[in-house]
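Treating backbone geometry as a discrete language has practical consequences that deserve illustration. In the encoding step, the backbone of a single protein was reduced to a row of integers, each denoting a local shape. The amino acid sequence and the backbone structure tokens for this protein are reproduced below.
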Amino acid sequence: MLLRNLLSKTQQFHQRTFKLTSQLLFVQARGIRDPPRFREEDIDKINKLELAAYFEDLMQRRPANESGYINLPRENFKSMVRKAKSEADLKTLVYAHANYIGHRNSLPHSYVDEMLSKALELGHPETMIETLRLHTELLYHPQPALTQKYFDFFASKGYSNLKDFYDAVKSNFYLVRPTNFSSKVIEMAFENKDIITVVDAYLLTLDYSTLSEDHLIKVYESQDFESHIDHGLYKHLNAQVEKRQIKNAQIKLNQALYNLKIKGYLTSADIIMEVGSDSQVTKIENSEFIKKELFDQINAQMSSFDSLIQKQLKDAIKSLEGKVDAEFYGLQDYFTQQQSSTQEEAVPDQVVVEEGSDKQQNQQNAQQ
């Protein structure tokens, strides 16, 4: 029995010695000159000081290695997140997070997720924009559900807020984006006449199946022809339309518009005629963009085209009668001309009967 007790105490001694040795080796490996010592005044400091003051005090009293890197415990950061109660505290957390990483103290993703969740809870998620923008540099990848909550929050606060969020994360392809990321940005940017962002959001889309026909139309109608013609964009849009086998009159007219811009006048006329001849197309929605860039341009340039092009374009436009708002698009003259021509063909030529002729005599006998 005495031998067994002695053996047990020896094992416990070796375990304590090994633990102490491991701690010393860890301290030595980090190059820490002065390991932290327990002080009575440090007890419950986080509840005695403001958060910013607490973190500054923590930075000063924690040990540093020979290279100047400070050993910052993870649990202290978690306690700071729980204590945060204001926008100023959230900014302190962002500052603390950067210092943790800068001093080579990694944090679990869940700890940083708690920080972002706390910002949402307190109503100041804008304080975390920089963390999301630099999340790869900060060794952090937010949960997709949390990213979705941030996206929904900024979208609900108006376009300017959504634009700030979009600009922060748009080029960060390591971030798992919400499924409605591109579609929502395109919708709100188009509504606010921010055509640059509409095109930008389309080009940065990772899954084009999330975009509807309406989104494609918005991208088509966000071109600035005064500066340039984006041939690559039109090629990509047309490929999406062909891949999905989309039959949409407004998209067709935008394709006709593109061909008009690149001087493919006969192709443009053929596409317009195709829309007019399609029995499934009953009404074409009014579009200021198509009016300005297609039909107004045709009207302005018509006299400069040769006779063949003029005829093809006029016939194509006439085929749209009953499907477009002629007054809105300024096409009344084309349809009036067509009606006049039809009436002329419908009225037969009057036959003049000479007086005293056999035909006149026959007509008089028939009347009697």
About this structure: The two ends are 154 Å apart (CA to CA). The longest helix spans residues 2-30. The mean pLDDT is 86.
